[in-house]
Amino acid sequence: MATMTRFTLDHPADDPHRPGLSGRLNWLRAGILGGNDGIVSVASIVVGVAAATNASGAILTAGAAALVGGAVSMALGEYVSVSSQSDTERAVIAAQRRDLKTMPVDELLELAHLYEARGLSPETAQTVARELTDHDPLSAHLEVQFGIDQADLVSPWHAALASGIAFTIGGLLPVLAMLAPAGIRIPLTFVVVLIALPATGAIGARVGRSPMARAAIRVLVGGALALTATFLIGNALGTLGWSR
Questions:
Q1: Which residue from 164, 20, 151, 205 is spatially nearest to 80, judged by alpha carbons?
Q2: Average pLDDT over residues 77-89
Q3: Is the pLDDT of residue 159 over 80?
Q4: Residue 122 half-sphere exposure, CB side, CA atoms within 13 Å?
Q5: How many angstroms separate the CA atoms of 40 and 232, rounded?
Q6: Is 176's pLDDT higher than 80?
Q7: Mapped to the 3 state alphabet, what secondary structure does 149-190 carry?
Q8: Three-state secondary structure readout of the chain
Q9: Per-residue pLDDT tens for 26-58?
Q10: Hey, how many other C-beta atoms are within 10 angstroms of the C-beta on 206?
Q11: What is the pLDDT, as a whole number, of residue 2?
Q12: CB 226 within 8 A of CB 40
């Protein structure tokens, strides 16, 4: 008697078709951007203040304000942005559900035409559309027409938390570097930031499957320019006595 072997499909960790991957990539993206912004923005502020004055209290106060304000701002920005995307996706799902209920024949023909446009013959496209409609018409239409997986919608809360936490962690690096003695705090902050930034750039490139070296160099140059600009401005203001 012949036996039938059942095969299961194991998705690699970075498979773009892996269930739930879209949501995870969303908060990973938010976290990487938040960490990068935390490093650059907080470091730029504390370096600018430190170039203007040696007062540790003023430097740490500016750093703490930048850390808290930036983290809250990043988290709120991600929440609003991803909420808009999520609201749009849910509206599309609701509209598609209504269309399937009120005009199922038209929707079936539309699905078949979409598969024809992807290269299937008319007969095969109609067969595929009919079988998918019999199984789960809503999921079939959402995937082909809009690229939406209703089981994997983005979460604004996850993105907001990832962004806020990552910003705080990234921003703490330059603040901690500023606790060093006055003579080395600015050079140390430069070193810490210019090491941390390529790391976040490389991680972001790895997640997005783009060249890691190019991304690392890009954020390194951008961060170096930001630090240099704020240092020069802070130094000029300190020389003019504006920091007093």
A1: 164
A2: 88
A3: yes
A4: 1
A5: 16
A6: yes
A7: CCCCCCCHHHHHHHHHHHHHHHHHHHHHHCCCCCCCHHHHHH
A8: CCCCCCCCCCCCCCCCCCCCHHHHHHHHHHHHHHHHHHHHHHHHHHHHHHHHCCCHHHHHHHHHHHHHHHHHHHHHHHHHHHHHHHHHHHHHHHHHHHHHHHCHHHHHHHHHHHHHHCCCCHHHHHHHHHHHHHHCHHHHHHHHHHCCCCCCCCCHHHHHHHHHHHHHHHHHHHHHHCCCCCCCHHHHHHHHHHHHHHHHHHHHHHHHCCCHHHHHHHHHHHHHHHHHHHHHHHHHHHHHCCCC
A9: 767 788 888 999 999 999 999 999 999 889 999
A10: 15
A11: 39
A12: yes
The pair of structure tokens assigned to 3 is 């036996």
Q: What is the pTM of this model?
A: 0.75
126-155: per-residue pLDDT in tens?
888 888 888 888 888 888 888 787 777 778
- 106-119 pLDDT, tens digit per residue, is 888 888 898 888 88
CA 174 to chain CA mean position, Å: 22
